[in-house]
Each structure stands twice: as structure tokens, then as C-alpha cells.
Amino acid sequence: MNLRATIRSIGKYCYQPDLRSLAFMRIALALVILTDLCIRLTDFTAHYTDAGVWPQEMLNQGWKTGYWTFHTLFPHSAFLPFLFGCHLLLAITFLIGAYTRLSTFLLLVFYISLHNRNIFILQAGDDLLRLTLLSCLFLPVGARYSLDVLRNKVRTGVPLLAFPAYLLLISSVYIFSVLLKDGPDWRVNYDAVYYALNLSQLRLPLGDWLLQQEALLQPLTLLVVGLEACIPVLILWPSKSGRTRLLAFVLISLLQLAFGLTLFVGLFWLISIACSLALLPASAADRIEKFAHLPKHSSPPAPANRGFLNLLCLFLATLSLAVNLSTLRNFSYEISNPLIEVVNALRLDQYWGMFSPGVLRRDGYLVYHGMDAIGRQWDLRRDEDYVDYQEPAHIVDLHRNDRWRKWTENMQDDRFTFLRPLYCQYTIRQFNAKAKKRKVQLLKLYWVQKETQPSYQPAIRKEILYCICNED
Fold this sequence. Notes:
Blueprint: H1 3-14, H2 19-41, H3 44-48, H4 79-96, H5 100-117, H6 124-136, H7 147-150, E1 158-159, H8 162-180, H9 184-187, H10 192-197, H11 205-211, H12 214-236, H13 243-262, H14 268-276, H15 282-291, E2 303-304, H16 307-326, H17 339-345, E3 362-371, E4 377-379, H18 402-412, H19 419-434, E5 442-451, E6 460-470
Helix pairs in contact: 2-4, 2-14, 4-5, 5-6, 6-8, 6-14, 8-12, 8-16, 12-13, 13-14
């Protein structure tokens, strides 16, 4: 058997998905997308209109070459609500598997445009969502449990490189997460979990309890790195039965569930679990099918001999790998034009370095020190005449959702100081529009910074004036 035939045989028997697992991923991903859009709709005006924190005249402040969006067209009309309605309709269409390939493509286009409209509220889960939708264009995610099946409009053929490319994508999340964690927090002192749980703007109630379990924190740091190192090996191992990928799915689910229960990471953990459902082998899909009383289907897909699609999969996978390699400190290569424009236009840019190279030490919360027309002070957060600079009981509760938390996190970055007056002016406008006790004319926006110290020592506290603004 020659080398080409050997590679084809390995791809056919070891790296082919189960069509039901792809359908499970599609359904779970669609539900997460609907959840995401509903959360975004609660801050529709604040995040996507000129009346919010990020007017379209500021877009060039954060854009990279090749970015684009159609969410800035006709900003003062009903166009944006119409776009959100279309986006929701596409998510429902994707959920039920109607015109699946077309709805997947349009979902990807809408998400790229929406993400580019306000890049300062995005997190790694958004990158993973986009990249998974791109992968779904090459995978028959609508071949089971869909309206397309009822309409007899499905193609079960899979380009030989499509599923291996997707496995590489999921593996890259954990491969590069490990490689980027090269600071002493992870490699020498093993206190990364301690510092992560000290970030009170992220820590959830279960994280409060875990932070007090001092004896567990170093072993947990080693466990996180160990799991992230093992998961890619299990995903990429050439297993005919798919048991290694099943184990990878279990480990991903446990790891992401632990993150989601202890830290306020938005939808990242749900997106990660939903995307990894495609890893489930036929044996697991059989059990799910039986447990849920789903109609039985013949599952094995037929490898499709589509040279162009295979070349396109290889090209996109190579670009994604190059993007990930460029995030490493010791890798000097950078993608140049015109490829970088392709990367940015398709939003293949990605970074899996949360808490890398070490965990951020700085933490804190905002204080809204307002003044009325005759100089009397007012606390806009508490709506009281005494401005409270003391730390709230649960800082994480100050953020309505993870989008606002991410915006606040970006305001801490010295590269993005231009976000502060925009947020300050938006805050004073919103407060005065709803004020029942007293309107304010001036707002001093303070950041009370806490710097975590080792070994449970008291944090160093400092008050930083972000900006002073009025409503105009």
C-alpha cells in the first residue's frame, strides 16, 4: 500500500465523524447562539448604536486591516433591529436544520459583522463560535435530525480533510493554551489558580469557597495544565472506535464546567462543550439516540472525493495554525499581506491565552462619583448622596453580563484609555434619563484597583481617576 492510500485509509477509518454527533453539535450550538443573541439584545442600544458606549465614528480605533461590518449601515433607522431579527431567524433555521449549509454561511457572515461592530465586548468564546461555524460549512451538520432530512435534501459526504481540520481546531484551543502558559504561575510556583480565584470581578460563589481551600490550589493548577495537555493528544489520536475522542469530550466538559461554576467567563464554557459534541463516536451516539428515543439512522458518512474542498480545508487550517503560532513569544514569523487581510476578513484571528503567560494580579471595581448643579455629591451606582468607595460584597454582581465585564476589563488596559470617557458619558446620560432623586451634571469615574499579593496577604489598594465628564 502506498503512502497516499495509507493516509486515505487512516482518514476514512480513524478521522470520520458520526453524523448524529454532528447534529447534536448543531443543535447545541444553535441553542447557545440563541442565548447569546438574547443576552446581546438586552444591551442593544448600549453596545451597537451611536447612543451607546461605542459610536460608529470610533470603529477605526480598534479595527485591523480587513475588518468589515454591515451593522453600521443606516444607524438611525430600524435597520439594526431588523438585522437582529434576521440573526435570530437564522439561528432558529440552523437549529431545526432547514437549508442548513446556507443558514450556516449566513450565520457566520452575520456574526463576523456583529462582532466587528463592537470588538471590545468580545472574548475567546466568540472566536471559537465563529471558527466552528466556518468548520460547519464543510461538515454535514444537517444530515441528521433536521428538516433537510425530511425534505430529502441532505448530503452525507464529508471532504476527507474536513473533520481532521475541525479536530485540529478544537485541539488548538488546548495546545496553545498550554504553550502560552509559560509564566512562573504555571511552570514554577503553581499558584495560577490562587491568583485566578483572587480576581473578584470574575469569582463566583463556588470560587469563593474554593479559594479558601489552600491545600487544593497548587494541585488544581497542575491538573488544569495536565488536562489541557492531554486533551489534544486524545482528540488527534488515530482511534477507529473513537474512544479516545469520547474521553476527550468528557475531560473538556468537566474542565469547562469547572471554569463555568467558579469564574464568570460568560458563554465560553457552554460554547466549548457544544463544539466538542462532534467528538462523540458512534457508540456514544447510539446511547444518546436510545436514551432520547430518537429515530435510528445509519450513521457512517461517506468520504467525498472533492479536491477543491479538501484544498480549501487545508488552506484555512494552515492559516489558523499560522495565526496560533504567531501568538507564541518565541515564534518570530508573522503573517503578512495579503494573507493577513484574508485572516481578518474571515475573522480567523484567535488567541487562546486566557491567564497567560501568568494570571493578572490587578483587580478592582468602578466608583461613580457624581455631582449635581450646586456641587453636591451623588453615588450613581447606589443612587445615594454618599459616595461609597468600599469594596462591594460581590464585585462580580456589578456586571449585568459578561459583555459589560469584558468592556470593564478592556478599560483597565492602558492601550484602550479612549474607552473610559465614552463609558463615562454613556453612564451619566443613562443615569439622568432614569433619575428619580437627583440628576447630576458631572461624573468622576474612579477605578479602585486591588493588586493581589502572594500567600493570602492583603491586596494593595489604589484609587485611579479614569476620567471626568459631563453629559454633553
